[in-house]
Amino acid sequence: MSQTYADIIIDISHSAIDRVFQYRIGDAWKEQVQVGSLVTVPFGKGNAHRHGYVIGITQTPSYEPDKIKEIVDVPQKGLPIEGKLIQLAAWMRETYGTTMNQALQTVMPVKQTVRKTAQKVEETTLPDTNWEFVTLNDEQQALVDAFAEDIQAGERHTYLLHGVTGSGKTEVYIQCIKEVIREGGQAIVLIPEIALTYQTVMRFFARFGNRVSIINSRLSNGERYDQFERAKNGDIDIMIGPRSALFTPFSNLGLIIIDEEHENSYKSESVPRYHAREVAIEYARMSDAIVVLGSATPSVDSYYKAKTGVYRLLELDKRVDDRPLPKCEVVDLRQELREGNRSILSTRLQELMEERLLNGQQTMLFLNRRGKSAFMSCRACGFVVKCPHCDVSLSEHSGGVMVCHYCGYRQPVPKVCPSCGSKYISGFKAGTQKIEAMVAKRFPQARILRMDYDTTRAKDAYEKILQAFSNHEADILIGTQMIVKGHDFSNVTLVGVLAADMSLHVNDFHAAERTFALLTQAAGRAGRGKLPGNVVIQTYDPDHYAIQTAKEQDYEAFYDKEIEYRRLMNYPPVWNMLLVHVTSPDESECSSMAQQVYDIALQMISHTDENQSPDDRHLIQLIGPADATIAKVNDIYRKVIYMKTSDYAALISIKDVIEQAVKADTAMKHANISFDFNPMSGF
Asked: How far is CA 556 from CA 296, 299, 323, 324, 552, in A?
């Protein structure tokens, strides 16, 4: 029998998390030792017995075999809390093409000493607010009953809860958590960003008191560690927070809820580029737990899996108290231009805003995207400059050129619209500050709040702005995406979407999905109280299916159109995609490495095709190399290569070979590569 060795970290609690030691696995322990196992090993010159965690198992010794010490004990059957997280890190390493150290740094908190953290966190996040306790309607109760029956039967599933805006998904979450706690379990609730924390957390604290804890990006490493220790010690039952809250070390995890599961923030933009939804499902499988994904606008990926039976679909079709959905209108900005209105506010939207001010009601104005737009469109006819090969918009670069960041196609910037000949072709450049100034000039009597990245940098800025608006200290709230997600203001009866096209025509195949979600979520902020709501969607492309289906609040109709587009173009979730991102401070080295990656992939694809029968072949499309969306950042050059196939395992194999080849190439001293499977956005 061949000898096996364990790669072990001695003390997972400290910042030297990447220090790895190798030990021999004796015959007595071979059946018990696995990744994540707690073991006892002789350590140091005195061979003092220390605990450690196994992070890898191999048959290849790191140095002379006779000098490798042996594990002396496996003191705990099954995986300890930390062991599960280590095992999860190992899964992330294989799934996302990262190193074990990077994965460990993601899932394990770093130990730091803090004083009175628990009190500090609660004092800064728990204002004196009274929340109304509600009784579930028949639709909500039926879902909770079905959930409870599955728990009692020992069934573990991933559920997709699709509920229209205002249907009371949070109340369903709360009742499901009660069922899990009643069975002795614990729950993790993920929310997409800090802006959602305030109202959501208040509801949970009203029901569960001090058995709830929260983490967010404002906490120091020490404060975050302290909250994780409370979870580990059994002092809390529920952890609420963004993506990183997923790694809470509960000993009896029973439920993971991902609210607004369609949100991009659940996908990490740094290595490892993991998606919280995928990691949550794997963590739940390891922990014998349940996952509930909730959204009024589910991601196409999740709904596809629900339709194909991978997830269980639960639906809430009605708003609480049978309140009607808001009345949606689409304003054609091309017609506004023809009628001489060059303001960002359409005539219809101005009329409705005036009406709200007179009646003491509130308005929310949503700018669909912050900052400068990279695509070009014609204000006269709505034409968008697109890549003829990839069906995504071209991005304007310096030097008067437009580029596709999927395939590298280039063309000059047009001086007039290629479709109608109008000179009104350009990018949309208005930001929230400019809009605030325009609204203040048009409605001098109005009290205006602005909520964007710039106004929310200070501590508690989110909560202060939201609380002020909730208390009717302002008539109009202007903001970016953060104002349209999850907030519940009973006096808001008008929502204006100022630039629907800004997300519709970005150079990303998710553009229509994101636009539909944003418009639907924005519309859902209106009419959540006793008064009916109105929504005005302003666009240069009023006939686009994402606009029309959002107007009707018809997710099913949108999904049917979008999934056909994905099938036609071989985009996820129908196919899988791997993005290889190459960077280097040397432009020629970056180009050479990108070409090398392309050649390796091409060779593997050709070899696979030769050795497989026609029935077993999985077509792999190779695209690039091309400049990234921003080709140079901080003097670092950036290239991308895309691969698409129906076979996820084939992409993993290609990734592994590319990694090995790059490591062996000592000539490329400064080039780096990273991988992103099924990317949420381009680079």
From this structure: 11, 12, 21, 19, 11
What pLDDT is stored for residue 530 in this prediction? 79
User: Identity (one letter) of the amino acid at 115?
Assistant: R
Say if CB 298 and CB 162 are below 8 A apart.
Answer: yes
Residue 456 confidence (pLDDT): 79
The architecture of the domain spanning 324-373+428-568 is 3-Layer(aba) Sandwich (3.40)
SS3 state at 629: strand
* Beta-bridge mates of residue 492: 362
Q: What is the pLDDT of residues 197-219, one digit of tens each?
A: 566 778 898 889 889 998 877 77
d(Cα 349, Cα 329) in Å, to the nearest integer?
A: 10
Would you say the C-alpha torsion 470, 475, 480, 485 has a positive or negative sign? Answer: positive
Q: What is the pTM of this model?
A: 0.82
What type of residue sits at position 617?
R
pLDDT tens digits for range 492-537: 999 999 888 878 877 788 999 999 998 888 887 777 777 888 999 9
Residue extents of the structural domains in the chain: 5-107, 117-321, 324-373+428-568, 576-677
Q: What is the CB-side half-sphere exposure of residue 535 using CA atoms within 13 A? A: 28
Render pLDDT for 590-601 as a digit per residue (tens, 0 to 9).
999 999 999 999
CATH of domain 5-107: 3.40.1440.60
For 411-477, the DSSP string reads: EEPPSS-TTT--S-EE-----HHHHHHHHHHH-TT--EEEESTGGG-STTHHHHHHHHHHTTS-SEE
Q: Which residue has the tokens 């500050």?
A: 433
Residues of the chain with pLDDT under 50: 113-132, 370-373, 613, 615-617, 683
CATH for 576-677 (3.40.50.10990, 3.30.465.10, 3.30.70.360, 1.20.1250.20): 3.30.70.360
